Amino acid sequence: MNDKEVEASVVVEYQVRLAARKRKLGQMTRELELAKETPQTRSANSSERSIVISGTVHQTGMQKP
Q1: What span, in angstroms and rounded, lies between the C-alpha atoms of 15 and 19?
Q2: Which of 4, 23, 43, 57 has the fewest C-beta atoms lying within 10 Å of its C-beta?
Q3: What gap in Å lies between CA 65 and CA 60, rounded to an integer?
Q4: Residue 42 φ then ψ, to 5°
């Protein structure tokens, strides 16, 4: 490769990386806007703790005959 080909290759690489960063910035901006629009149910200085539990509910105890 000559110097111009190397330079062109570097420019293309930077353009690809820049485009990826612009997409990420757009995604983060949309997420931030959504977070601002979503109503909050608790105040920011609430001292209550919250726990999120997910998964399948398993019943124990009596079984049907």
Answers
A1: 6
A2: 57
A3: 14
A4: -120, 155
Secondary element (H or E) of residue 1: none
Residues near 48 by Cβ (< 8 Å), separated by ≥ 6? 42
d(CA 48, CA 30): 29
All structural domains of the chain with their residue ranges: 1-38
Q: Which tens digits make up the pLDDT trace of 5-56? A: 999 999 999 999 999 999 999 999 999 999 999 887 665 556 677 777 777 7
Q: Read off the tokens for 12.
A: 């293309």
Place of tokens 């539990």: 53
Give the pLDDT score at 34: 93
Q: Where are the beta strands (DSSP E) in 1-65?
A: none
